[in-house]
Design brief:
The chain is of the alpha+beta class. The protein is built from ten helices and twelve strands. A seven-stranded antiparallel beta sheet has the order 1-3-4-5-6-2-7. The chain has a five-stranded antiparallel beta sheet with strand order 8-12-11-10-9.
Length: 342
């Protein structure tokens, strides 16, 4: 019989490369202090600018194209030292909790596949995330925050994250400038400090994201809890899927004396399907593993998830890649089960 997580995060130890550092609960965090980016680093590129490469490091290697809505910086440190520095920066900030550290390269090996060094760090704070979800519950699909560290074949190490404008534009956020500013400031500060904080570091940005880009939404019967439970059962019964985390955003909000309608997020994946996407475009790790968000309001329950073809477009992956249709079909079946339609 499946056991429920008592509050917010259910880490799955059977997913060999998924590890939680420190407490897995976001509940005990204080308010996130707004940290403004260093003016010496320059201003953010305009949202109207086209997608760009970060540049050509001294060794001649080229880093990945920055996807829409993302920010990036090339690290002066080795891959391992950069990952360690990101972790250290998160743990040094009393307002943040490191939820999970996912070694996508190690996960690929468990599926008999090869992937370059790719590590994803998931971290957050309900004091900042809750106001964003009050403004637009669907933004929960992009929370908690992620930071992705990848190394190219040529040895260039790149740190990527989603900018606050990605959240604001994709989910139509209005009236939450202060928490969005906090998000941008803290993420930039972590990335630059982890990358080495040298005088020659520069942040690069992809173009902005469109409103509602790539979100598949359907109605569900019952409550958010019931719909999420139906998905969890389906994941448990499918040997090809691994549960990564279950996050109760409303419970996290209550733990810091904030109110939020029932919002539950389930994160899950299959390295056999996710790895080919990251092989095609390492930056797609920003949108992996898969997520489903369950939102309950007075009007009913909705389920949302990311359309795999949106991920392909965002990360310049060939839409004909067979794994994309497999993932889309699987998400369609799982969402129907969760909605109580099957």
């Amino acid at each position: 019989m499946r056991r429920h997580a008592s509050l917010s995060i259910l880490a799955v130890v059977s997913l060999g490369a998924v590890a939680c550092a420190g407490s897995a609960d976001l509940a005990d965090q204080s308010a996130l202090t707004t940290l403004a980016p260093d003016p010496a680093r320059g201003s953010e590129p305009s949202a109207d600018e086209p997608a760009v490469t970060i540049g050509e490091p001294a060794d001649g290697t080229i880093t990945a194209v920055v996807p829409p809505g993302a920010r990036s910086v090339v690290s002066e440190r080795s891959f391992e030292d950069t990952v360690a520095a990101v972790v250290a920066e998160i743990e040094a900030n009393a307002a943040l909790t490191l939820v999970a550290q996912i070694d996508h390269g190690a996960n690929a090996e468990t599926a008999g596949l090869d992937l370059g060094p790719t590590v994803e760090l998931i971290f957050g704070n309900p004091v900042v995330g809750t106001p964003l979800m009050v403004a637009s519950a669907g933004v929960g699909i992009d929370l908690p925050q992620k930071m992705l560290v990848i190394e190219s074949d040529g040895g260039a190490v790149q740190v990527l994250w989603n900018g606050a404008s990605h959240l604001a534009t994709r989910h139509g956020l209005v009236g939450v400038d202060e928490p969005l500013s906090a998000v941008d400031g803290v993420l930039a500060s972590i990335a630059f400090a982890a990358a080495g904080d040298g005088d020659d570091l520069e942040m690069s940005s992809g173009p902005d994201t469109e409103l509602g880009a790539g979100l598949v939404t359907l109605d569900a019967s019952g409550t958010a809890r019931a719909a999420a439970d139906r998905l969890l059962v389906a994941i448990e019964e499918n040997p090809n899927l691994e549960l990564v985390a279950e996050i109760d955003h409303a419970a996290n909000a209550a733990s810091v004396d904030l109110e939020l309608s029932p919002i539950i997020e389930v994160i899950f994946g299959n390295p056999s399907l996710g790895t080919p996407l990251m092989q095609a475009s390492p930056t797609s790790g920003l949108d992996l593993p898969q997520k489903m968000l369950f939102v309950e309001t007075s009007d009913g329950v909705t389920i949302s998830y990311n359309d795999p073809l949106y991920l392909a477009a965002r990360h310049t992956i060939d839409p004909a890649l067979s794994e994309l249709s497999t993932i889309a079909d699987a998400l369609g079946v799982l969402s129907a089960l969760a909605a109580g339609e099957a």
